[in-house]
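Ops channel
N.P.: pipeline sanity check, posting one input/output pair.
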């Protein structure tokens, strides 16, 4: 297993740790887990590209680990009464379906990447940051982030659907 895949898999623990720290009202620890996830997400891809070790496994687990982390964030915020955050389950469902469609149609695992991640990811991290520090700016950032992330997830879902239809046409 490559170093970058090991870094990616090590991030799996950060979601539950974030949940625990946020529910414990430990702002510093919550921010630490948020930034560790961000740093790990950046560094694993850079290591894989620089070493020429990009793998099919890495292409699949990296976005899955990212999504799992944000599911724990949604859960954390929802438990603490920030109900608006539940709207993020909609784009997460689209992302989940876009991962499942190729598997259901041809038995392959494929994750569709998008260049818009360079826009929606900073919005997501900023939104979480402002919620953690209890700054009302999150209420302004929320709608922009939700719209952008939802559009991105729908675009990924449509690409997955097109891919899956092409697979079925080849059968």
């Amino acid at each position: 297993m490559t170093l970058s895949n090991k870094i990616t898999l090590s991030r799996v623990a950060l979601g539950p740790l974030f949940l625990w720290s946020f529910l414990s009202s430990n702002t510093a620890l919550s921010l630490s887990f948020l930034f560790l996830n961000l740093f790990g997400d950046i560094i694993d891809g850079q290591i894989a590209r620089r070493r020429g070790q990009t793998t099919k496994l890495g292409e699949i687990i990296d976005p899955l680990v990212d999504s799992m982390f944000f599911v724990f964030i949604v859960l954390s915020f929802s438990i603490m009464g920030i109900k608006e955050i539940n709207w993020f389950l909609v784009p997460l469902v689209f992302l989940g379906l876009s991962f499942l469609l190729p598997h259901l149609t041809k038995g392959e695992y494929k994750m569709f990447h998008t260049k818009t991640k360079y826009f929606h990811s900073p919005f997501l991290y900023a939104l979480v940051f402002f919620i953690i520090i209890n700054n009302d700016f999150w209420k302004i950032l929320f709608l922009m982030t939700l719209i952008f992330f939802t559009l991105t997830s729908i675009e990924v879902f449509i690409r997955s659907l097109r891919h899956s239809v092409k697979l079925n046409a080849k059968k």
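N.P.: looks fine end to end. The chain has a mean pLDDT of 91.
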